[in-house]
# Entry
Amino acid sequence: MTTDRSHRVLATAILVLLAVFGFEIFTYSSDDHRSEDQSYQSKFNEDYRIYSITIPEDLSFCGEDVPVHDQDVYERLDRELLVNTYWQSNSLLYHKRASKWFPVIEPILKKNGIPEDFKYLALVESGLMNVVSPAGAAGFWQLLKTTGQEFGLETNTVVDERYDVEKSTEAACKYLKDAHDRYGNWTLAAASYNMGMNGVEKQLDRQNVKNYYDLLLNDETSRYVFRILAAKEILEHPTKYGFHYRLKDLYMPQDVHELIVDTSVTDLAKFASDKDINYKILKIFNPWMRQSYLTNKSGKRYKVKLPKTGYHDFSSTEIELQVDTARAVLDTLSTPEGDE
# Structure
């Protein structure tokens, strides 16, 4: 009995020691992890910082000064600069697509006497993609079907020239010239692109003011010009807002040749194959073709764009030629960083 009792006492003592020792290990481990977490959080907070933005004092749109000294204007501009600066993925894509499409848009604006700043309107409208709005506006310039037809675009189920960048830019120029003739002001012309000329005219009369920055408008149009201003400021000064890229990161301008088609094409897939490309590439370069065929009873002369050899092969030496074209647009974007 004495021996059994001794064994029980010894076993109990051992269990107590193990429990105490285990608690010490757990406490040490927990403290160690807690210290590690605190160290990580401290470093994270040190390295990742979100900064407020300094509003530029000399901002302009189409040569017209932006009254940033006005508190309301200041806050509205601040909002759009913050949204676009910290929506990094979207704004970086703006830079990449602008490299590809601004060289197409800029000469058309210049030819029509439209200030170059309006290229940022197209950027804000569509992100330079052939998107369709809930209201049915389409293409880079987000033209409604009736507006496109009013300014000379063919829009039907087979051909929709709102998706042709050159032709839709020409149509947008016509609209903007009419709006400027009406208001004598490019900022109001830009606002009317969103709200309509009659809508802007009605609000100017109702509120007895003469410029966009004095108008109280619906939320969309109230933000509209400021979104354009923010896009312009960030794309023209990318590193100021934290955007860094190399020339090779940008999307290249399209290197194409044109083929005139003045007859119907019953099978665009076969047509593409005969031109040594595929249906997908044909549609990418000619998004105005809305079906798998092209009806052309009137014998209209359509310009069909075809890529030059190597455009879609990034291992091809042809891509080096496109880099030279891309350099031109960097003057209006930034100087690329790092290697090419």
In short: The two ends are 89 Å apart (CA to CA). The chain is about 55% helix and 5% strand. The beta strands are 60-61, 64-65, 256-261, 302-307.
